[in-house]
Amino acid sequence: LNPPHKALSGQDKHSFGYTTLQSRLPVIVSKIVDDVYRAYNGLSDSDPLKKEKEQEAKKIIELIGGLRYELQRDKPFRPFTDSREDVEEWNQALAEYYPTSSWYKASWLFSECYLYRRVKEAFALTQHWKDYDPFFEQKQTVFKSSQKAVVSMAVQLTTPVDPKTKKSMLDIKVQDGPESKGTRDAFFEMVQVSLWGNATDLSLLDNPDLAKIEELQRRMLSSGSSNNSSANASPAASTVHVDQVAQDSPEEHASELEKHADKILSNDSELLWSKVKSLRNGRVDIILDNAGFELFVDFVFADYLVRAGFASEVVFHAKRIPWFVSDVMPFDFQWTLDQLHRPTSSTSDNTPPTNFFNPTDPIEQQALQDVGKKWQDYVNNGIWKVTSHEFWTSCYSFYHLPTHPSAQDLFQDMRQSDLWIFKGDLNYRKLVYDCKWPTTTPFTKAIGPLGDGENKAEGVPVVVSFRTCKADVVVGLAEGVEEKMDKVVDNWMVNGEYAVISVSP
Ligand code: F6P
Ligand code: MG
Q1: Continuous segment of H or E residues that includes residue 465
Q2: Is 323 helix (H, G, I), strand (E, B) or coil?
Q3: What ipTM goes with this model?
Q4: 471 lines ligand 1 (CB under 6 A)
């Protein structure tokens, strides 16, 4: 926990770190209390353990209330008291680096990770709520509101593209081989879809307005076509583009797309393509960010990599504990697949009845079934794997991945991979150690041992980040971009409307 440069901190009143500690986290924490309250009020009278569960829930509410108090009064951090396997490591880090520190004095990254770990503690201390995810309901509601975009993509993926064989994108390998123009165009579109899927995370939306999220998806996905030179290239984004953006006048549409092309402030996707196109049956690791719509588009991207023959194995890394509100846990991963292909019997405790998405058109219903089933088959056949490791929810940045003792099993396994794709803002912050780097710092330098500097670790493959900007750090910008942005847009570094695609080859 010795950052290589000045770390972002809540002490800077003009920073998003300060705003987060001051206004956003207290709201997030209050919502946990509401959720637990609702959950225990909903316990059935016939549940023989109702009383015990109620008592434990009240205890959780008390602990979370205490946590909010400590945060708002900037009280010193205290050690953890539960018995999760990561406790010792957290307590060691607290004792060694932050013995007398508190929320605003510590680095923003540490304070924020500490908060989510403290939330976990409140549940981990119980018997009946140990595995409860207080963010699950929010994740579920927002995913449901993504129905239009999800259905639209599913239909595009399953619509026959070959009139003779009636095969759809899902049935066929990407046409004409990995180096064809179609495969290339589809790649750029996939990248954009996966990138902008990160724009709708829940921790930024204190009060998610579902209509707004839908609108955001519409706009973000319409941007997926901005780099696209071929009308039929996209199995995904162009659907949304055709169905919905068509309502705009051509001028409006053109300017919308131009705006979005400009919104990727540093774009290494050509470099990424040069790496990806040489892969044959490789292994790609996706370090996931958010559940819901973002996870769905991650599936779309992973499906493309497999279909094109670039990857024969995709390893998805999820979080073991509820994290930054919307992050994917292994449960969310399976739950999402379940909602698409609607199994007749549920596979997980909280699975709602079979019709989570309810498009009325049978073609749309079938499309969801087909994509869900295809992706479930990938999982069943070991082509897609979901895994989770304590390291992703530790207080450590990814500089520590190659050397941190408790991450060695993870690192050794990930070295087998050809490509690491880190999704989202928090993963980006952890890649660059959440420091206030000059914006022109090369990405390969800012990611330390995972990049190409002196302290470069052995065996790190191509490192990629798809990130919409939601924190006061961005690197890899050309000279003058920061100044230009400062002149024209307030809060451009944190408002989630700008993005970077960064690659360390
Ligand atoms: O709470 C702050 C933060 O870490 C921001 O960096 C970002 O807004 C959000 O939480 C997480 O975003 P993402 O889901 O993209 O990692
Ligand atoms: Mg997230």
Answers
A1: strand 462-468
A2: coil
A3: 0.96
A4: yes
